[in-house]
Design goal:
The protein is an alpha+beta fold and 210 residues long. It contains 6 helices and 6 strands, in the order αβααβββαααββ. 52% of the residues lie in helices and 15% in strands. Keywords: Membrane, Transmembrane, Transmembrane helix.
């Protein structure tokens, strides 16, 4: 099995893997509570930073003009955020992602089984890429755009709260675990025998737990 084949990921569960955990990201209360709490903490931190450091967030636009531009920017960002997840998964695995909508949110999912490392990279991709872009925009754009840029920058990190929570859940899994995120549920599969890692390059269908 070549390194290139391994890098592209797999669309079928390898032999010897069992379903270990399922996280319903739309309805699981524990996940929702953790995500919402982290979201609020990040928003509060951003608001506190703006006050403590007296960030220049004033705009010469009218109130409604500022609201309109910011709302449009937020909607565009939400779409770009999920698209970035999808692009990252595609680059890492060679498997095309799928996109959907769970109003008012867009979702990205994939049938690929990702290693812990690949899952973390795909989960953090929007936060890191757009965090850098938006931070640069905040410094480089005209003053009237800074409030909007700061709101979207804050959303970039706060909106990644669910990704951070999932990374925490995956981090504690056994060595060799594989992760599948279809946009609605995250499923974690582990090797049947403790300490035994099945090469993900072998794409013969495996067995799932009940």
């Amino acid at each position: 099995m070549t390194g290139q084949a391994k890098a592209r990921g797999i669309s079928a569960l390898p032999t010897g893997y069992l379903l270990h955990q399922t996280i319903d990201i739309k309805s699981e209360r524990k996940f929702q509570l953790a995500t919402q709490s982290l979201f609020l903490l990040i928003v509060l931190a951003a608001g506190t930073a703006a006050l403590v450091f007296a960030l220049p967030l004033t705009s010469g636009w009218s109130l409604w003009g500022t609201i309109a531009v910011t709302a449009i920017s937020v909607l565009v960002y939400m779409a770009v955020h999920e698209a970035t997840h999808g692009v990252a998964v595609h680059v890492l695995t060679g498997i095309r992602p799928s996109y959907g909508m769970a109003f008012p949110f867009l979702t990205a999912g994939s049938r690929a089984y990702l290693s812990h490392r690949s899952f973390v990279i795909a989960a953090l991709a929007p936060c890191i890429v757009w965090g850098a872009v938006l931070l640069a925009a905040w410094f480089l754009l005209p003053a009237d755009f800074r409030l909007t840029a700061y709101v979207v920058l804050t959303l970039n990190f706060a909106g990644s709260a669910g990704d951070f929570v999932l990374i925490g859940a995956v981090r504690g899994q056994p060595s060799g675990a594989l992760v599948q995120d279809d946009g609605a549920k995250v499923r974690i599969f582990v090797p049947r025998e403790p300490g035994h890692t099945v090469d993900p390059g072998h794409s013969t269908p495996g067995q799932q737990g009940p």
